[in-house]
Each structure stands twice: as structure tokens, then as C-alpha cells.
Write a structure and sequence with these properties.
disordered N terminus, 19 strands, 8 helices, 32% strand, ten-stranded antiparallel beta sheet, eight-stranded antiparallel beta barrel, alpha+beta
Length: 338
């Protein structure tokens, strides 16, 4: 009898713990995200199997790859490529079943699997570790290193985009298509490069160069010039420009792209862990998730389109959002210097 009571008590405690972890008002829990990732992998609407074609090209936000047949083993694929600066990168993929592969990744310990899927009609390769955690998402890239270079520019332009005020009260507008406007001055800017890779240094149409130091709501623009080799950009003495998001921006969503675009590690790697938490939770907030954390309630409560629900169990993410939450959580979990 005592044994029965102990077992029942342990069961009730476990059930209560599960209910409390995902109670209305709590921040989305790791277990909740993990459950959704399993649905994404097997049954979720918007997910379908995809066949990787020899000759197709992909990137993960840092490296680009082209798919080749392995010359020695039937059915095995080899992805060869590199960064925008150097080559020599590869991933060996041995077929398992249903467009699923065992992946051998140089310089990475552990067992990995790679699955070819379409997520909301977007072809991708999802790489998971032995615990089924997403560690990389690769998307189609038709133009090898130049395609990756263009992707990096778009990610950085998205990072800068917003409506700001400088310390004189002048309004600045930076857009995702690399345009700027401040007072009567407007035009396009371009990203400069270091060792063939775009960096957060811009040149405006007036010929001035600026290193852009970005946080979630502020940009510090530092005068810059290239070194003698032309490979590096250095800070110059001179007046800095300080930009702060305009008050109107507080009433708008900040990271809508995190719900709309299938993300790679490269999309979010440049954000701080604090920002990544905001980005991840904004995905849930779009669907009305009712947060318990005071800072999240305050932040999203200021957004005019945020409509919190009474019961969080009704909140469902799209296939794209579910995978994006996983990739953001992976980047959040990495050591700071990785």
C-alpha cells in the first residue's frame, strides 16, 4: 500500500510540474519547443520530403556548398565548398532513408543527421545532433560564394534597418534595401569588405565611411578608413554619430522577418543573447502568447498589434517559425566566443 501511495504521489508531482512549466502566462519552455520540433520533423503541416540534386548549391549563412556524387560509394553525397574567402570545406552524407543522411562534419565531434525537407515550400537541409537538436539549416544558393556574399549583405542591412533619431533630433531612416535618408540627404550605402567578406562598415553616397556598432535600439557610427593593404577598416578620430530608435518604433514589431524567412545560423549569429531571446519570443508574441516575464509583457504590451490570448495552449507556430525558434535557441546556447 505504501509503495502504491509513493508511486501515485510521484506521478502527481510529475504531472503538476509539466502543467506548471507550460501554464498560461509562462515564457515558452524548452520542452514545449522540443515537442514542436518533433512534430515539425514528422507530421507538421508545411513540411515535406525533398530530394537533394547533384549539382545543387546551398549555404548555411557562413559557408556555401555544391553537391557531388561520391566516386567510391553508391548513393553517398559529398558537399564541397567554402566561405567567401577560402575553400576546402566539405560534408560527407551517407544515405539512411527517406532523404535522411548520416552527416560527417569535419572539426565537429558527435553524430549528425541531415534531412532534406521543404519547410513552407522552401527547400532546406536540416542538420541535427544525436539529441535531435538543430545545429544548422542550409538553404538553396545558386551563386556559390557570390550568392553567400549577397546574403551576408542582406542580413547586415536588415540588422541596421529602422527609424532613428540622432542627438540633434534629426530623423534617420535606414532600410533593408541599403538606402538611407536623413533630412535632405538620402541615397544608397554599400557594405565594405575585409578579406572578401562583407563587414559592418558602410560607405554613403557622400563618400564618407562609417563603422556601424549596433545594439538592439542604438547605432554608433564611427568614422573609418581602409588600411594600406585595403583588407581592413580602422577607426578614425572624429565626431561619432549616435542613433537611437524613434519612440514610434516601440509600437511596432521589430523582428517580423523571424516569422517570415527561414533562418540560418548566419541570420542571427551577430545578435547578442539578450536580443536573441527577444527575437525568439517575438515569434510567439505574433500569435498572442501571454507572457509571465515582466520584461516581455512590458515590451510586447507596447506593440499595438499584440493581442495576448487567454490560453497559451491555443498558440501554434508555423513550420517556418518552429524551425526558426530551434535555430535561435541553438545560437543562444553557444559559448560567447564560438
Amino acid at each position: 500500500m505504501k509503495k502504491y501511495i509513493i508511486i501515485m504521489a510521484a506521478t502527481m508531482i510529475a504531472i503538476a510540474a509539466c502543467k506548471n512549466e507550460n501554464k498560461p502566462g509562462s515564457e515558452p519552455a524548452t520542452t514545449e519547443v522540443a515537442t514542436q520540433s518533433q512534430v515539425t520533423e514528422e507530421k507538421a503541416e508545411g513540411i515535406a520530403s525533398y530530394e537533394i540534386k547533384v549539382g545543387s548549391r546551398w549555404h548555411n549563412g557562413y559557408e556555401w556548398y555544391e553537391v557531388f556524387k561520391d566516386e567510391k560509394e553508391e548513393g553517398k553525397l559529398v558537399l564541397r565548398g567554402g566561405t567567401t574567402h577560402e575553400g576546402g570545406f566539405f560534408i560527407n552524407m551517407t544515405p539512411m532513408a527517406d532523404n535522411k543522411y548520416k552527416a560527417q562534419i569535419p572539426d565537429k565531434e558527435g553524430t549528425f543527421t541531415a534531412e532534406a525537407k521543404t519547410v513552407d515550400s522552401v527547400p532546406c537541409i536540416i542538420i541535427r545532433d544525436e539529441n535531435k537538436n538543430v545545429t544548422s539549416v542550409m538553404v538553396k544558393n545558386d551563386n556559390d560564394d557570390e550568392g553567400l556574399r549577397e546574403f551576408e549583405r542582406k542580413v547586415m542591412a536588415r540588422r541596421l534597418a529602422g527609424e532613428y533619431l540622432d542627438r540633434q533630433g534629426e530623423r534617420w531612416l535606414l532600410t533593408e534595401d541599403q538606402r538611407y535618408q536623413t533630412g535632405s540627404q538620402k541615397g544608397r550605402y554599400k557594405f565594405e569588405e575585409e578579406f572578401d567578406t562583407p563587414v559592418m562598415t558602410i560607405t554613403m553616397e557622400d563618400g564618407k565611411h562609417w563603422i556601424m556598432k549596433v545594439t538592439e535600439s542604438n547605432i554608433e557610427m564611427v568614422p573609418a578608413e581602409a588600411d594600406e593593404s585595403g583588407d581592413l577598416w580602422n577607426e578614425l578620430a572624429g565626431e561619432h554619430i549616435y542613433l537611437t530608435l524613434s519612440p514610434e518604433s516601440a509600437g511596432k514589431w521589430r523582428y517580423t522577418w523571424a516569422s517570415d524567412v527561414l533562418l540560418t545560423v548566419g541570420d542571427v549569429a551577430q545578435y547578442s543573447k539578450e536580443e536573441l531571446r527577444i527575437i525568439r519570443n517575438e515569434i510567439w508574441a505574433h500569435h498572442g502568447y501571454n507572457f509571465n516575464s515582466d520584461d516581455l509583457r512590458q515590451r510586447f504590451g507596447a506593440v499595438k498589434d499584440y493581442k495576448p490570448v487567454a490560453d497559451n495552449s491555443s498558440v501554434k507556430l508555423t513550420a517556418t517559425e518552429t524551425l526558426n525558434v530551434e535555430i535561435i535557441k541553438y545560437v543562444e546556447s553557444r559559448p560567447e566566443d564560438e
